[in-house]
Amino acid sequence: MSLNNLDQLYRAVIMEHYKKPRNKGHLDENNVTVDMNNPTCGDRIHLTLKINDDGIVEDAKFDGEGCSISMSSASMMTEIIKGKKIDEALELADVFSKMMLGQEIDDETLEKLGDIAALQGVSKFPARIKCATLAWKALEKGVRKEQN
After folding, report:
1. CATH 3.90.1010.10 for domain 3-147
2. Which tens digit of pLDDT belongs to each residue from 49-102?
3. CB 49 within 8 A of CB 74
4. 84, 93 contact by CB (below 8 A)
5. Which run of H or E residues covers position 117?
6. CB atoms within 10 A of CB 132
7. Long-range contacts of 39-43 (CB under 8 A, 24+ apart)
């Protein structure tokens, strides 16, 4: 697949998650709630997580307003962390952060991210990295708050 076709595929994945976000809304029963915003561009997110006693993310929802990158990243993140142990979710957050910083990620690790790999091109636009990482930072903040 040519680089141009791959770029178009990635854009399509991002727009699909933006137009039809997964897990958008609020959880009535949750044990982690985090509100974050990006004052630079106005993106904001409200993340709710239901984490069971075994440390597994049973459910994740988000709400907020923002650009296509911010909202699609939140959609993809909530989709991939459900059913994962907290440590696994944090590991994915770390991999995502490294990807956003332009660090080399091996193909096997990149495959673990699934659709999220579509956001890899954002790393070329420093002003947009905060958009992509907002939901992930909310996840990290919420989990740290829950663990304390």
Report:
1. yes
2. 999 999 999 999 999 999 999 999 999 999 999 999 999 999 999 999 999 999
3. no
4. no
5. none
6. 29
7. 40/127, 40/130, 41/66, 41/67, 41/127, 41/130, 41/131, 42/66, 43/67, 43/70, 43/130, 43/131, 43/134
